[in-house]
């Protein structure tokens, strides 16, 4: 359009001024019009390329129409300008001009809306006749009658003279009578094409009038109309971007569209009214009525009456269909579980469906006429009003929105609602439903996701989040916060004895005690099982935190009343203070390490985290990893230290010791007892290692016994290994797989951990005893000794710790204590084994005390399996001991001690 408008204005000015000379005027009037029409043809045909729908074909037909005009004007110019002759009439140019209208009419029909139903098709035809008949009647009265009264001897000339206006009338009827597709992306292009055709038809109509037709010469002002029509048709295809519509193409052009639709619907009636007024005017003025006018005008009136009758019948059917549709709509609205509300732009309610009675408890009549904001919760009102105003201001964008808010019910309670909001006239229509149950469920799920279900305390995720916030809010303070990890000592025993109901009640009471014992603003959480945590974010000085921890310890250790009984547990507490740059996970890890140290240090105590705790934990993990790797790479080996009868020197047993080999195959020492490696399901050692050791020892002992040697094997392990899940089954499977008699396997239990999980420990001891294995208490005399355990446990052997044996004969006090231990074991009917016998004097004194067996370097160090077999076969000890690389050799024996002591071989 930026080029078309100046071009049209320039052509018009040139036509008014006569172009400066007659020759230029003729050239611009003929070839100028031909060039403009040719440009329109090329533009329309180019637009149609690549479009295979109706729109593309329509542009192609409009291009053909413009091509007819271009060729006609070219022929006209050939006669006038080139040949300097009068243009023959009728001639070739007339036939091309005549075929301008048919392609344009077909092109418009392709993009016009198709009527739906027979009545609509009939009305379209009748509307076309109303417009065409009215225009024909007026045209005949004004000009066509005089054109037809011309030279009646040349029928062809008369036909061509009448054909021009008739075709133009049909074209105008198409433009005025048809309703074209609204909302398409090329709407602007179609409108521009219609304007271009209208300008061309008006110019044709002016040229048809006798006054202008008789004195017409090319290049005059009338040509400016044709030129403008062609230029408008040339730019029309490109005024709308079909392939890439603008973002607001889908916006509702409601005001303009409604106006055009009304004009389009009224056009036939306006045309009929003008035609009727013209005929009546001639009659009133007393002029003679032309028969053609009477016939054409009469047909217009008859068609008008016929069309109106069809419309009345169609309206009756439409009213019936509308009534059915309204009935369906009313049934849907009244039967819907959603509340349908129609509100004006000012918020006044115009309609409320009957569902409001069931959902909100109101009668529909109570709410009609009230304001919507009176039903909305005050805390939600401002937000909802803002969203609705924005929705109304953005007409058509979006078509629908959702609003969540709380709505007052008839009983005064607030219900959570979800509403779909749509445009309805100038207001809105809301479809609302009660989602209170869903919101409450969602709230509950969110609460459960961050809280422990049993105690309703925060869980690990929420606790870690609160640590993060506390660290962020107190950045720059040192220390910022403190974290406490708490574990109930003895909870498992209570849970096992009283059942899960008692255990759960104990946890709930403990949680309530913790909540009341901490300060306001502190957080208590439960991580699962009997583990709790506390975040102390107020005064985080070590002294204040220590006092709080001691208070928590005392609170948790106080007796609990559950089911009419008194229950007691203790607690182990670990404290970790924040440091600059620490994150919540690291702070929680430090508190956990401190709690672990408190439990391993005797329980019922408070420990503060120190960096060495983390170093120790890393070492434990690394040791476990080394053990796994050594087991996988087959670098572990089991050595055996003989256990000798002190009276006869006979080998009665061997003690299994676990060692590792280096890359060269050399043993890495010193020797480690199996308990030190954490064999079976230990806290830091993989369970497969313990099973492997048991299998190796049992298989080897079974092979020795298969050769006729009556010998057993002992394996040392902590008491906590016995309570590990599946341990009894593991021992049973190992014995069955190796065919070793159960009494040939002795399990040595380290004494210093026997107090842990007393009930489960004693139950497991009983299960092992039922398998037939022998049980021994290792390192007796050290750790937390308990004579009650000697009475309650079905043990077979008591092993005296090497710290007592080393001082026998040199320290009277320890010698007396050792003698007491021996007498105690003999009174209980136990077999006594002295560990660490290094000298013959020690062996003699222990034997005189009544100790039956001993083990130590006096007899032999650790032996490999073939070394044990050699000793069993030869009956000599002291020459086959294995000394690990890097280990200090044993002290040389006294002069009276022979390097190899003869022993009695076990008899098969």
Descriptive terms for the model:
alpha/beta, 23 strands, disordered C terminus
Describe this structure in words.
Helices cover 54% and strands 15% of the residues. The chain is α/β, with parallel strands linked by helices. Helix 5 (101-111) packs parallel to helix 7 (155-177). The chain is elongated. It starts with a helix and ends in a 6-residue tail after the last strand. 37% of the residues are buried.
Radius of gyration: 55 Å
Count of DSSP strands: 23
Low-confidence stretches: 242-254, 670-686, 752-756, 879-908
Structural class by secondary-structure content: alpha/beta
Amount of beta strand: 15-25%
Strands of the widest sheet, in order across it, are 13-14-16-17-18-19-20-21
Sheet having the most strands: 8 strands, mixed, barrel
* Oligomeric state of shown chains: single chain
Give the averaged pLDDT, no decimals. Answer: 78
- From the spread of the alpha carbons, the general shape counts as elongated
Number of helices: 32
Helix percent reads 40-55%
Alpha-carbon distance between the two ends: 120 Å
Topology, element by element:
Layout: H1 4-17, H2 22-48, H3 54-82, H4 92-98, H5 101-111, H6 118-148, H7 155-177, H8 187-208, H9 210-214, H10 221-235, H11 254-284, H12 291-335, E1 339-343, E2 349-352, H13 355-359, H14 364-367, H15 378-393, E3 400-408, E4 414-424, E5 427-434, H16 436-449, H17 460-473, E6 482-489, H18 491-498, H19 500-517, E7 523-528, E8 531-536, H20 542-557, E9 560-562, E10 565-567, E11 570-577, H21 584-600, E12 606-608, H22 611-632, E13 636-645, E14 651-661, E15 667-673, H23 674-677, H24 687-706, E16 712-717, H25 719-722, H26 727-738, E17 745-750, H27 758-771, E18 774-780, H28 787-792, E19 797-800, H29 802-805, H30 812-827, E20 831-835, H31 840-849, E21 853-855, H32 865-874, E22 876-877, E23 901-902
